[in-house]
Fold this protein.
Amino acid sequence: MKSADVVVIGGSAAGAVAAVSCRRRYEGKSVLVIRKEGQVQVPCGIPYIFGTLGSVEKNVIPDALLQNNGVEIVKEEVLEVNREKKTVLLSGGESVGYDKLVMATGSLPITVPIPGADKENVFAINKDANYLKSMLGEINVAQDIVIIGGGFIGVEFADECRKNHACNVTIVEILPHCLQMAMDEEFCIEAESLLPELGVKVCCNQRVETILGDRKVTGVRLSDGRELKADVVIMGVGAIPNIAMAAKAGLQTGKTKAIMVDRYMRTVTDQDIFACGDCAEKVSFFSGSPSAVMLASVATAEARTVGANLFVTRQQNGGEIGVFSTMVGGRAFACAGLTEKAARQEGYDVVVGEAVATDTHPGGMPGAVSTKVKLVFSRGTGILLGGGISGGKSAGEMINVVSACIQHKMTFDEVALFQMGTHPALTASPIAYQIVNAAELAAKAA
Amino acid sequence: MKSADVVVIGGSAAGAVAAVSCRRRYEGKSVLVIRKEGQVQVPCGIPYIFGTLGSVEKNVIPDALLQNNGVEIVKEEVLEVNREKKTVLLSGGESVGYDKLVMATGSLPITVPIPGADKENVFAINKDANYLKSMLGEINVAQDIVIIGGGFIGVEFADECRKNHACNVTIVEILPHCLQMAMDEEFCIEAESLLPELGVKVCCNQRVETILGDRKVTGVRLSDGRELKADVVIMGVGAIPNIAMAAKAGLQTGKTKAIMVDRYMRTVTDQDIFACGDCAEKVSFFSGSPSAVMLASVATAEARTVGANLFVTRQQNGGEIGVFSTMVGGRAFACAGLTEKAARQEGYDVVVGEAVATDTHPGGMPGAVSTKVKLVFSRGTGILLGGGISGGKSAGEMINVVSACIQHKMTFDEVALFQMGTHPALTASPIAYQIVNAAELAAKAA
């Protein structure tokens, strides 16, 4: 019987990183990744297939990463995990023995149970390459696209779908604003204001009641009775943990219906089985409560923890901070930790600091983009709870500076003295650098 | 007699920020900035005047910052500080009383005592607007420019001087490589390799022995006997603290010939006088020893400490990490903390991790730039000592993530679990994100 010291089920971000990290941490151990996909899609790259990239083939996680690190790949489906025998049964009939098993089975897109959701050309955000290819074919010739859900994925799809051909794109969002689950209202309003320029219509406070058409979708009916034409409908309303295999194997799941793990990413049910990524239950960095937020960057951090802890307990998962970034019409939006609204809901008395400056300096540098940083602190302790940024592309890394400050529970006084580097072509000026100014203004307001 | 609660001498980055921070921290206090300049130049923007910006007027720190924060500006020279009477004497004859005084007199460019250094068209990097205007006039019509010193300023000048007109530019550097004081050799070599494509020649291991010409410079003679034609010579060899006024007032200076201050940026000589920026002595974050590195971003962090501590001791200066970034031929180079070489010189047994990935993902995203991160850790403790980056423009903020990790003495295991956000158009992939991969590889190597 084939066997490996470590068997990883799933080859997307979490599975691949767990495998590589294990090889880095335990050089002598053999690692086998079992996945059903021939090639694995970059999960966060999926919206970009439909515009910037233009093809499914350009959105592939290269297998070289696994091969260069001595990880074996088996491209089959896993039918069953036998915890007593410590084997997994493959679709080809073979069994593979393991010493340690890693569940990295990811998530499945939520399909909203709307009447008509089973019609042709109603797509969910499925990570399967063939599914995405047929979706691309339909989107490329679509005249009227309706996107259900104005979260990051929905907004990114809306922006991308129009890049390669003219079409009508409408986002239908149930909340008052797009992106509202992740960002404070002022950022949502700013991002939304850019969508009409991109030719994207937004219907907020609306629900799709019915998907219209015969065999194939022809439109949707909204909760206010309006009908929108549609030859393609995209459901971008989130994902649920893919835990069928884990459930079959008797692994306990938690409040978010994900596999329950301890602080070391070991399943609470079986000491030889670990879980990471979208299929593993997360806890909030702030409250310690279960969190349903799924992010590839969190999945990979968890996977690195798994890789380190498989044979020796080395690292502890500190809980999910939640760092998001996106682009809307060429402008970057990013956030980390708690929004002002979420912080208040969590019972914090917050103090906020905001600073705006160009992302290069002086302001007359060509291409300078006004960039705003908002930081949210706890009034009592002065500790940083979260931040939001809108502006130039460097916001994608600026939010990681904010994340580092959150992770270290820095206070506004400490953030105000943060030693950043600055350069005319790369950052705001040292005088105006937004993160430290926002912190100093919060200290003033406290 | 005119008076203010706080008088700041000097209106560049340090002076302006100390004034604004004081107003933010102590709303009721009156603050007066005394400076001799009509308009203040952005110090790190100076090389960009000669190419990208094209004019001295576009490189001005706006006075609005001071005005909007209720800071009064007096545009005169200070002749004398009378510590007994707690007054400063202005060039116009007026005296101004203070409760607290802030010395932010900055630095003066080093003029190397080379024979012929007093000839016309031999320029130092002076921050005076009129001086820079005449320098711009000469550079704009120069055929042959020799730059003495291949540090950041020298390399930036070389890159910029050729942007608006064709001319021959040669850097003469005394060390084996350009940028060697700040970056490890491999980054220096990479940056140097880009210079010929920009039409810039580099003569390393060379000293300018004589500056040739009659009244006006016509060339330079190098230590190997070669002569280079030059109608403009630029000396970019560093700066020394401007402490004439402080010395006259009897303020003690330290090993780097800068004003000695305590951990709270108060001068050791006079409890009512603070100092910050290039004129104030710095200590290394790592060793606590005096450091002669001058950076606007350090100056502003010190100035914020001064602003906070003027009337109540609130904040401690943790010592200089030293975070640099620059652009060479459109590629960003950045570093923070100790280089591998400097760490070894300081007596550390180092362990290094390196990771390369594109700055967007997947690699096929248009405009993706291969970006390398090198992290240097102490073997015994695993604590991060420094990092270097070369690659896309987001390196300017990535190095600030590294700085935050240094500031918190994070180990390779902690950096490997850092919760960054990622996005296809803004960062490397969560799998390949360079900072965490470099940390994990260092953990492997340790």
Summary: Chain A touches chain B through 85 residues (CB under 8 Å). Chain A has a mean pLDDT of 96.
